[in-house]
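tool_call: predict_structure(chain=1)
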Amino acid sequence: MDISKIIAEAKDETIELRRDFHRHPELGMQEIRTGNKVAAYLAACGLEVTRLNQTGVCGLLRGDRPGPILLLRADMDALPIEEETDLPFKSVNAGVMHACGHDAHTAMLLVAAKILSGMKKDLKGNIKFVFEPNEENVGALAMIEEGLLEDPRVDACLGLHVWSPLRTGQVGITPGPVMAGMAHFELVIKGRGGHTATPQDAVDPILAAAAVVQGVQAIQTREIDVLKEPTVIMFGKIQGGTASNVIPDSVTLSGTLRYLFEGPQDSPENPKNRFERVVSGICAAHRAGYEITYRYSHPTLVNHPEMAALIGSVASRLSQRPPEIVSFVTLAGEDFSEFAARVPGVFCFVGAGKTGKENFPHHHPNFDIDEDALQTGLALLVKGALHFFETADQLRFLNREAQKKK
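tool_result:
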């Protein structure tokens, strides 16, 4: 069977699916049309389809031969952005856009499921095709809590992301930490309101907030080796006050905390703990109180070395002109880390930047991809899955798990 030929023949269908999803984007937990279309497609391929986390979908392909369980994942949600491209398939939903490439991920994984389902008799194991809702807000965790990784128990996972900063023809595959652990925080600084003419009678939360914004910057520049443990604390929103001559009772600051290393959550050196230590000290110095809430977060995405090597081997042999494999690491967040924190996994970046044209960054209203990248991503999913099963007996982490079960 000529797998490369089958993948090449699926090009038009992959593009058509991507454009359809792009034209009809849906926000996280609202992927009703997308989820229903995905579920119907997988059922038509003969997969066992279940729904998780409301709009999420999992299709189970049971190979005819025994072996490990591989999870392949795509995300489905769009962003609250008004699209400004002139694409003929631009979003028809006002204020909603696929500005991150999730439309491409969903299309590639659907076609991969179709191709691999046609090879069922040769598969030495099972595959879970996971279509995750609400990735931007850690939708993976709810799917895991609903039992996604069990029955049958997943042994390894593979995911990918089209990436416009990399040009088409490049693939980023790196062992170890590759995407940041991330926490979205809301910090309320509590003071005592008053008149701006008599600030001595009040506790000014605005002054404390200004000191916090500046003070926490010392964490990432004075406490941490940026080459070993990159950390970024950013404030995206500050709200407080009702009038220019009124000292408010409180100020609310919202932002993100990102870090690119592994570490125990209870350690004083964990970024969250460092952050609260500085906030506590500054607020105490200003006689103010505080409350920190983490709305959602996920750990650092760490590629397992064996899985990274496996996919690297596949990428180097994709075609007569294989892609250029590059080392790529970013402080962007990705909740595929929730899967990779529980089972050995690998997450790679598929270059999708158009040569000779302006490539807008992810989450930009003019974001678009080179659709030639779809062929590379599809090939990585299909051939990566096949190579995983072919070499499963050589993977040390699988053999260790097999020994534990005996």
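agent: The longest helix spans residues 373-390. Proceeding to next step.
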